[in-house]
Amino acid sequence: MKKILTALVLGSLLTGLIVPLAVSAQPETLPNTCKLKYDFSDVDASCTKDAEVSADEHGICCMLNTITTATNWVFYILTLIVVIMIIWGGFTYITAAGNPEAAGKGKTIILYALIGLAIALFAKVIPSIVKFVMGV
What we know:
Blueprint: H1 2-24, E1 33-35, E2 52-54, H2 59-94, H3 100-134
Antiparallel strand pairs: 1-2
């Protein structure tokens, strides 16, 4: 219990020291425009790919651009991890040599990798869900 309390106090002190530094590192003025990487002309006619739009007037396009970029990164990273896990699970299953525990471990790794693939595919759907919820 003392270790947990010590860790919480130490974490709070470090947060109290680091957060002000991070806040003071922010620029004086925030950018008022965003450059779109994706085409959102179905949301607003001026929100086309590679357009630089005002964040005040086209905030929804900037938000969707950020969400799409973040979910694409999540998708690519999870897909890479899934491929590595399937290779590892297949190798474990093939080299089990009749050992039921090792074969079961390989099957479990492949099963969890497929669950990770389902989560990665869900990440690609999130921007569409946000558009639907926002009524755009």
